[in-house]
Design goal:
The complex is a heterodimer of chains A (411) and B (160). Chain A is an alpha/beta fold and 411 residues long. Chain A contains 13 helices and 13 strands. Chain A has a seven-stranded mixed sheet with strand order 2-8-7-6-5-3-4, sandwiched between helices. A four-stranded antiparallel sheet of chain A has the order 9-10-13-12. A two-stranded parallel sheet of chain A has the order 1-11. Chain A starts with 6 loop residues before the first strand and ends in an 18-residue tail after the last helix. Chain B has 160 residues and is of the alpha+beta class. In chain B, 46% of the residues lie in helices and 16% in strands. Chain B has helices at residues 5-12, 64-77, 82-86, 90-97, 104-124, 142-159, and strands at 27-34, 39-47, 53-61. Chain B has a three-stranded antiparallel sheet. In chain B, helix 1 packs across helix 2 and helix 4 packs across helix 5. Chain B starts with a helix and ends with a helix. Mean pLDDT of chain B is 85; it is low at 133-140 and 150-160. Classes of the chains: A alpha/beta (411), B alpha+beta (160). The interface between A and B is large, with 41 and 47 residues.
């Protein structure tokens, strides 16, 4: 097999830039270097032209108006600006917020800050597949609810949320809906009108664009959403986000969005095929493998699997020529496994031995076949030396054994 | 994480992986750790009539350092008397494998596994169980061992 190693299967962390995006950005570093806010010369006009085109490209992908796109440094900033900006602006309306426990830290932590500042936050727990229950969501809404924030799709397990149903209800109740769509934009159809989304954040580097740039969609009518900016200054971006624009990055974001929109249908089909080939290839040959996330409502390029009876770190060591993410935080000297998997009710040991495979635009079938073979070989080898697998084969469920945890305490 | 060459060697070519008959009167079994902590070690020793360890096997669920620590432990106990094996200290394992501070618990578990196997063997043979006061901070998975013995007996009955 002539596969180039290592293989990159961590596309939920970041994606390589598409060479077409890189080409589109290039002139904006050396040739069209102007400040897009410079109104009185061609350097500024050229830069502004690039930014305007990108705004249209981004808006088109999510069915928004270009005027509703605010450039940011990425999804973390977008999430912070949406949540804190709304909280500050709508203080008179109320102080109740709704979100869920499996959000990204860039949503969780701004809400924790609001809580410290005296706001009330309802933290919804998803079901075992990672989906929020729409009825529970509806029950959580109160007359003083200002904003709900529910991610479009989860970064660890790929589960897609029922945003459209939630959006329709929010609209009816006059609650603003923010969605962290970092993992969804450019991967699956996202339509801010049909989904009734008021604020949406995403970043370019998850869809083959550059790092350090992203966008926040802020609805302009029905209702007109207002925000208190975090950055004060020159009043760029309708006053929502001051600071000279990252013109090459923005141009790249636009190009990445245009490519994603054009190629989404075909790419989804191809990646889903490869992903299912990976999943089936592994489960056909190894037992005690469980899928984390929803079998159907799931991003087409993500599969998160737990391998019972093997430990996470040694598993990653065995497949060190494949770049993936793990639900274990063991290597960072903290023993806490993924809070997302824990929220789904996945036991700690299974959370530690989970792997997220995130496929992407440039992965090949050969790479997937190599990964399957490597996984099967590594898991088999590790299980041959696993006392837990031995117990399982003897008919003893290790989870029913009363372990004396103190001896395994990490010091 | 950067592992030492010795850890990598034991991880890639573990010595003495396997199991021996738990019911053999000359075999002592030690199981320590817990799955939710990320490490479970099973270490078995077999003695000859003179009480010298003639064989050792291990199975470990754990990180590379845990696998290496238990693999090394099986190498070291072979040929030793029970008392000599009891004298093996986790610090020696740390030194030999150049374990980083966050992995010291792996060596502690390996030491516990050796002791637990020896206690199991001595208990089986009706011999006095050594006082392990010195290592008191690291309780063995005696409760897990007992549960297991019970369950394994049940499992065996069910199989027959």
């Amino acid at each position: 097999m002539s596969v180039k190693l290592p293989i990159y299967l961590d596309h939920n962390a970041t994606t390589p830039m598409d060479p077409r995006v890189f080409e589109a950005m290039k002139p904006y570093f050396l040739e069209f270097f102007g400040n897009s806010a410079s109104r009185n010369h061609s350097f500024g006009w050229e830069a502004e032209k690039g930014v305007d085109k990108a705004r249209e490209q981004v808006a088109k992908l999510i069915n928004a108006d270009p005027k509703e796109i605010i450039w940011t440094s990425g999804a973390t900033e977008g999430n912070n600006l949406a949540i804190k900006g709304v909280a500050e602006m709508y203080r008179e309306k109320g102080k109740h917020y709704i979100t869920q426990t499996t959000e990204h830290k860039a949503v969780i932590d701004p809400f924790k800050r609001l809580q410290r500042d005296g706001c009330e936050v309802t933290w919804l727990s998803p079901d075992k597949s990672g989906r929020v229950n729409v009825d529970e969501f509806k029950a959580a809404v109160r007359p003083d609810t200002v904003l709900a924030s529910i991610m479009y799709a989860n970064n660890e397990i790929g589960t897609i949320q029922p945003i459209r149903e939630i959006g329709a209800f929010c609209k009816e109740k006059g609650v603003l809906l923010h969605t962290d769509a970092t993992q969804a934009v450019g991967k699956i159809p996202v339509d801010v009108e049909a989904d009734h989304i008021d604020l949406l954040s995403f970043t370019a580097h998850k869809l083959y664009g550059p790092k350090g740039v992203g966008a926040l969609y802020v609805r302009r009518k029905n209702p007109r959403v207002r925000l208190t900016p975090i950055f004060d200054g020159g009043g760029h971006e309708r006053g929502f986000r001051s600071g000279t624009l990252n013109v090459p990055g923005i141009v790249g974001t636009g190009e990445a969005c245009e490519i994603a929109g054009k190629e989404m249908a075909e790419e989804t089909k191809r990646l889903k095929g490869l992903r299912d080939r990976l999943h089936k290839g592994i489960t056909d040959q190894i037992d005690y493998v469980t899928l984390n996330g929803h079998p159907d409502y799931r991003l087409p390029h993500v599969v998160n699997l737990s391998f019972a009876y093997v430990e996470g770190e040694s598993m990653l060591m065995a497949i060190n020529d494949i770049a993936v993410s793990s639900g274990s935080a063991c290597t960072s000297a903290s023993l806490e496994p993924s809070y997302v998997l824990k929220a789904l009710g996945v036991t700690e040991d299974l959370a530690h031995s989970s792997i997220r495979f995130g496929l992407g635009r440039f992965n090949t079938q050969e790479e997937i076949d190599y990964t399957v073979a490597k996984m099967v070989k590594s898991i088999t080898r590790l299980r041959e030396m696993s006392p837990l697998y031995e117990m399982a084969l003897e008919g003893i469920d290790p989870s029913k054994v009363e372990w004396n945890a103190s001896s395994g305490e990490h010091h | 994480m950067a592992y030492s060459d010795k850890v990598l060697d034991h991880y890639n070519n573990p010595r003495n992986v396997g199991s021996m008959d738990k019911n053999d009167p000359n075999v002592g079994t030690g199981i320590v750790g817990a799955p939710e902590c990320g490490d479970v070690m099973k270490l078995q020793i077999k003695v000859d009539d003179k009480g010298r360890i003639v064989d050792a096997k291990f199975k470990t669920f754990g990180c590379g350092s845990a696998i290496a620590s238990s693999s090394l432990a099986t190498e070291w106990v072979k040929g030793k008397t029970l008392d000599e094996a009891l004298a093996i200290r986790n610090t020696e394992i740390v030194k030999e494998l150049a374990l980083p501070p966050v992995k010291i618990h792996c060596s502690v578990l390996a030491e516990d596994a050796i002791r637990t196997a020896i206690i199991d063997l001595k208990t089986k043979r009706g011999e006095a169980v050594p006082n392990l006061g010195e290592g008191g901070g690291h309780a063995t998975s005696e409760r897990a061992m007992e549960t297991l013995r019970g369950q394994m007996a049940t499992a065996t009955v069910q199989k027959n």
